[in-house]
C-alpha cells in the first residue's frame, strides 16, 4: 500500500535500515517488562498484559531465529516475583504450559531447542512438566536456543554456585586457587550458554532486577519505553542495529 503510494509519487520506497546479518549478536537476553502497565492503560486486568505478552514472545522468537541469533534468553519470572498477589503468580505459572501447547509444534518444526534456567523445585508440576516435555522433544534440535529464565534470580544462582564450590573445597575436590572465572561460569545455571552480547529491557525501567549479574558484565544494554506486549520485530531490529553500531572494548582500546 505504502510502496504503491511512493510509486505513484514517482519515488522509490524508503528503505528501512536493516541489521547486517554478519554482525548479529549470538546471544540476546530480554527482560520482558511492562505487561501490567500495558493492561492498566487499557483498563484491563494485569493478567491480560501477561496473556498478550505471549504474542510478543512468539514474534521475537521468530525474528531472532530469522536474523540468525543463536541464543535467546527470556526473563519470564524472577525469584522476587513470588511477592505478587497469588492470582497473578498462578496465572504466570500457567503461561509456559499455555505457550508451549500452542507453539511447541512450530518450535520443533523450526529446529528450536527449548531450555530453562531457574529453580525448578518451587515450580508447580504443570509448569515444570510442560517445560520438561518441550526440552525433551527439542533436545536434539540444532537451531536457535530458546532459554526461559523462570524462577530465576542471579544472587541465588551465585550463592548456590559458591556453596557448591565451597563444598568441593571442603571435601578436597578443589583447591581455592582453582577457582577462576571459568570455573564460576561453569557452576552457574547458564553454564552451557555464552554470556549475552545484547540485553534488551522494555517498559522504560533502567535496571537489571537481579538478572544475569555475572553474565552481563560486558553485554551491550539497550532500553526501550515500549511495553512488552507491544514489542515487535521492528523494535528487535532496532536493538540489533544499535548493537551493531557499538564498539565493544572489553576494557581494551
Ligand atoms: C513483566 O511485566 C512480566 C513479569 C515480571 C512476570 P510486569 O508484570 O512486571 O509489568 P509492569 O512492570 O508491572 O508493568
Ligand atoms: C523483572 O521485572 C522480572 C521479569 C521481567 C520476569 P519486574 O517487573 O519484576 O522488575 P522490578 O520489580 O520492576 O524491578
Ligand atoms: Mg515490571
Automatic annotation (TrEMBL):
<comment type="function">
    <text>Catalyzes the condensation of isopentenyl diphosphate (IPP) with allylic pyrophosphates generating different type of terpenoids.</text>
</comment>
<keyword id="KW-0808">Transferase</keyword>
<dbReference type="GO" id="GO:0008834">
    <property type="term" value="F:ditrans,polycis-undecaprenyl-diphosphate synthase [(2E,6E)-farnesyl-diphosphate specific] activity"/>
</dbReference>
<feature type="binding site">
    <location>
        <begin position="34"/>
        <end position="37"/>
    </location>
    <ligand>
        <name>substrate</name>
    </ligand>
</feature>
<dbReference type="InterPro" id="IPR001441">
    <property type="entry name" value="UPP_synth-like"/>
</dbReference>
<dbReference type="GO" id="GO:0016094">
    <property type="term" value="P:polyprenol biosynthetic process"/>
</dbReference>
<feature type="binding site">
    <location>
        <position position="82"/>
    </location>
    <ligand>
        <name>substrate</name>
    </ligand>
</feature>
<feature type="binding site">
    <location>
        <begin position="78"/>
        <end position="80"/>
    </location>
    <ligand>
        <name>substrate</name>
    </ligand>
</feature>
<comment type="subunit">
    <text>Homodimer.</text>
</comment>
<feature type="binding site">
    <location>
        <position position="33"/>
    </location>
    <ligand>
        <name>Mg(2+)</name>
    </ligand>
</feature>
<feature type="binding site">
    <location>
        <position position="84"/>
    </location>
    <ligand>
        <name>substrate</name>
    </ligand>
</feature>
<feature type="binding site">
    <location>
        <position position="50"/>
    </location>
    <ligand>
        <name>substrate</name>
    </ligand>
</feature>
<dbReference type="Pfam" id="PF01255">
    <property type="entry name" value="Prenyltransf"/>
</dbReference>
<comment type="similarity">
    <text>Belongs to the UPP synthase family.</text>
</comment>
<dbReference type="GO" id="GO:0030145">
    <property type="term" value="F:manganese ion binding"/>
</dbReference>
<dbReference type="GO" id="GO:0000287">
    <property type="term" value="F:magnesium ion binding"/>
</dbReference>
<feature type="active site">
    <location>
        <position position="33"/>
    </location>
</feature>
<feature type="binding site">
    <location>
        <position position="46"/>
    </location>
    <ligand>
        <name>substrate</name>
    </ligand>
</feature>
<dbReference type="GO" id="GO:0005829">
    <property type="term" value="C:cytosol"/>
</dbReference>
<dbReference type="InterPro" id="IPR018520">
    <property type="entry name" value="UPP_synth-like_CS"/>
</dbReference>
<protein>
    <recommendedName>
        <fullName>Isoprenyl transferase</fullName>
        <ecNumber>2.5.1.-</ecNumber>
    </recommendedName>
</protein>
<feature type="binding site">
    <location>
        <position position="201"/>
    </location>
    <ligand>
        <name>substrate</name>
    </ligand>
</feature>
<feature type="active site" description="Proton acceptor">
    <location>
        <position position="81"/>
    </location>
</feature>
<keyword id="KW-0479">Metal-binding</keyword>
<dbReference type="InterPro" id="IPR036424">
    <property type="entry name" value="UPP_synth-like_sf"/>
</dbReference>
<feature type="binding site">
    <location>
        <position position="38"/>
    </location>
    <ligand>
        <name>substrate</name>
    </ligand>
</feature>
<feature type="binding site">
    <location>
        <position position="220"/>
    </location>
    <ligand>
        <name>Mg(2+)</name>
    </ligand>
</feature>
<feature type="binding site">
    <location>
        <begin position="207"/>
        <end position="209"/>
    </location>
    <ligand>
        <name>substrate</name>
    </ligand>
</feature>
<keyword id="KW-0460">Magnesium</keyword>
Amino acid at each position: 500500500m505504502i510502496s504503491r503510494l511512493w510509486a505513484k509519487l514517482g519515488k522509490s520506497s524508503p528503505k528501512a535500515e536493516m541489521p547486517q546479518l554478519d554482525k548479529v549478536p549470538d546471544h540476546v537476553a530480554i527482560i520482558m517488562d511492562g505487561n501490567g502497565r500495558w493492561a492498566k492503560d487499557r483498563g484491563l486486568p494485569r493478567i491480560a498484559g501477561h496473556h498478550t505478552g505471549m504474542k510478543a514472545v512468539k514474534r521475537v522468537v521468530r525474528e531472532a531465529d530469522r536474523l540468525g541469533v543463536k541464543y535467546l534468553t527470556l526473563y519470564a519470572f524472577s525469584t522476587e516475583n513470588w511477592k505478587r498477589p497469588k492470582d497473578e503468580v498462578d496465572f504466570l505459572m500457567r503461561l509456559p504450559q499455555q505457550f508451549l501447547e500452542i507453539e511447541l509444534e512450530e518450535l520443533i518444526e523450526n529446529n528450536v531447542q527449548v531450555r530453562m534456567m531457574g529453580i525448578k523445585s518451587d515450580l508447580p508440576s504443570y509448569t515444570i512438566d510442560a517445560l520438561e516435555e518441550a526440552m525433551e522433544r527439542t533436545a536434539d534440535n540444532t537451531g536457535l536456543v530458546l532459554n526461559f529464565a523462570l524462577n530465576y534470580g542471579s544472587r541465588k544462582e551465585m550463592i548456590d554456585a559458591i556453596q557448591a564450590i565451597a563444598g568441593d573445597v571442603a571435601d578436597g575436590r578443589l583447591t581455592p586457587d582453582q577457582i577462576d572465572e571459568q570455573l564460576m561460569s561453569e557452576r552457574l545455571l547458564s553454564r552451557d550458554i555464552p554470556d549475552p552480547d545484547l540485553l534488551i529491557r522494555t517498559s522504560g525501567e533502567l535496571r537489571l532486577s537481579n538478572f544475569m549479574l555475572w553474565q552481563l558484565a560486558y553485554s551491550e544494554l539497550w532500553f526501550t519505553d515500549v511495553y512488552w506486549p507491544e514489542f515487535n520485530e521492528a523494535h528487535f531490529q532496532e536493538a540489533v542495529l544499535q548493537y551493531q553500531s557499538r564498539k565493544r572494548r572489553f576494557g581494551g582500546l
